[in-house]
Amino acid sequence: MKHFGLFLLISATLQIQAKQSRPNILFIFSDDHAVNAISAYGGPLAEVAPTPHIDRLAKEGAIFLNSFCANSICGPSRANILTGKHSHKNGFMRNGNRFNGEQWTVAKELQKGGYDTAVIGKWHLGTTPTGFNHWEIFPGQGSYYNPVFIQMDGSRKREEGYATDLTTEKSIEWLDSRDSEKPFFLMCQHKAPHRTFSPALRHLDSFDDVTIPEPSNLFDDYKNRSETLARNEMEIDRHFDWAYDAKVRKNERGDIKLPKPDRYGTPEYNRMTPDQKTEWDKHFGPRNQQFLADFAAGKLDHKALVRWKYRRYMRNYLGTVKAVDEGVGKLLEYLEKKGIADNTVVIYSSDQGFFLGEHGWYDKRWMFEESFRMPFLIRWPGKIEPGSRPSGLIQNIDYASTFLEMAKIDMPEGTKVQGRSFVPLMQGQDKGWRKSLYYTYYEYGEHRVPQHFGVRTDQHKLMYFPRTNEWNLFDLKADPTEMKSVYDEKGYEKVRKRLTTEFNRLRKYYEAPEFD
Ligand code: SGN
Ligand code: CA
Q1: In what order do the strands lie in the sheet with 452-456?
Q2: Mutate to test the pocket of ligand 1, among 194, 262, 349 (most ligand atoms within 8 A of CB)
Q3: Closest atom, ligand 1, to C-alpha of 194
């Protein structure tokens, strides 16, 4: 009996110790942040647009070189993360669906397991967050300037300031007021760099003096691939709105008529205070006048006009990234100041990638590399060797299992989670890791990207377009910018067969429904 008492005491102490040693998880998540706009990934913009704070995570932890989403669009990606499942299993297939918050989520499990949980910023899942002790979210897409936040009692609060700064500040406020007896799980979710690509006013000038390199396929002809590519509506050339995207406001133009499209106006400008508008105009006013004068004088041919829009797009997009990066810096500093950096896992990721002019595009959705990839950087002191560069194929359906392993919580039976923990990859163990990923995209609407499905291995990608019954195959080594499908090419018969078999195997494995 005496021994039994001692045993209980020891096991209770061990349990408390295990609980105390469970790390906090700070998940910093942005919207539409392409890996090419994070300098640690070493892309073409790394020199001109450094992200020093995000890069710190790579330096002090790991940068996943092959991180992907399961469905390259906002709501679905967030649902993939929360449920650890592909879209056809969690029911959130396309934006505009409503997330079923009754189902199992990693937030609920962490909450049940003793974590203090919160989500702040962009949510975009239609229903009220479940599994969070605290939440404060944007309605829908949210706004960049003076945004509204929905409160837990359902009321709406409009705050003066810039969305990214406010999301960071609110995250810090919550960290300060949380239950410090418990480990925390905080999802700090930015709107930026999503369309309308509107930077903090302090960053408007940031990229004025740099030469922004241009992707080799800015003028893609969409040949040698699915016929659906040419039917897209996401080109900088044909679909980038003059006022809404390029920030040339209608009442700045006098008699000068710009080519189409020019549909939406400038809702972000309309939200600003008079002082904010003055600052905006101080930046864009003279630049727009110069541009309009050049345009009216016929100095810009078709290609030059596309290039002008591309540069305008990039300056604004990268400008929004600057505030996100600063926010990461503020959060890292906070953790240090509070002495909790050593016991906090910090992750930086984004709901999908984005086209920064590649294929002539903005937006995402396609299984092409730029939008299929998700950034994933993580610092976990003592557990991840600084400077690690895991190359295993990971996907957002893996995050739930990964977070639970970090939190030392067993995955409950019956959850049917489809992802798996990639903690081993962080520690250099890739034995038995998956060799292929399954991709789905269901939405068909804005930007006219068709439904498509596919499989990617380290070197090849097979894509299937059910509506036009087309198959594309890419050799990522020979053709990293995916300019030519080799599906019918001589010499690729074996690869085609192998990938098709793998595609069918994965569809069975993930219990994918028939194509409709
Ligand atoms: C909005 C944007 C689109 C964008 C979708 C999805 N238009 O509808 O350009 O593709 O969001 O983005 S806008 O006029 O509202 O800016 S997502 O990241 O939320 O999925
Ligand atoms: Ca997004």
Answers
A1: 437-441, 452-456, 460-465, 470-475
A2: 194
A3: 18
Q: Which tens digits make up the pLDDT trace of 251-260?
A: 999 999 999 8
Q: How far apart are CA 29 and CA 164, in angstroms?
A: 11
Check if CATH label 3.30.1120 holds for domain 441-509.
Answer: yes
- Asked if residue 139 has pLDDT above 60, the reply is yes
Taking the C-alpha atoms of residue 399 and residue 471, their distance in angstroms, rounded to an integer, is 30
pLDDT at 21: 86
What is the rounded average pLDDT of the residues 219-228? 98
CB atoms within 10 A of CB 68: 25
Domain extents for the chain? 21-198+316-429, 228-312, 441-509
| Ligand 1 contact, 141 CB (< 6 A) | yes
List Cβ neighbours of 385 (8 Å cut-off, separation of 6 or more): 62, 427, 428
Nearest CA to ligand 1 atom 7: 195
Report which of 39, 38, 44 is spatially closest to residue 357, judged by C-alpha positions.
44
Q: What is the pLDDT of residues 45-74, one digit of tens each?
A: 999 999 999 999 999 999 999 999 999 999
| Ligand 1 pocket check for 96: Cβ under 6 Å | no
Domain 21-198+316-429 carries which CATH code? 3.40.720.10
Q: How far is CA 95 from CA 99, 188, 404, in A?
A: 10, 20, 27
Peptide bond into 76 cis (omega under 30): no
Q: What pTM was estimated for this model as a whole?
A: 0.96
Which residues make Cβ contacts (< 8 Å) with residue 87, sequence separation at least 6?
70, 71, 76, 79, 80, 93, 440, 442
Helix (H/G/I), strand (E/B), else coil: 28: strand
* pLDDT, mean over the chain: 96
Say which amino acid occupies 394. Answer: I
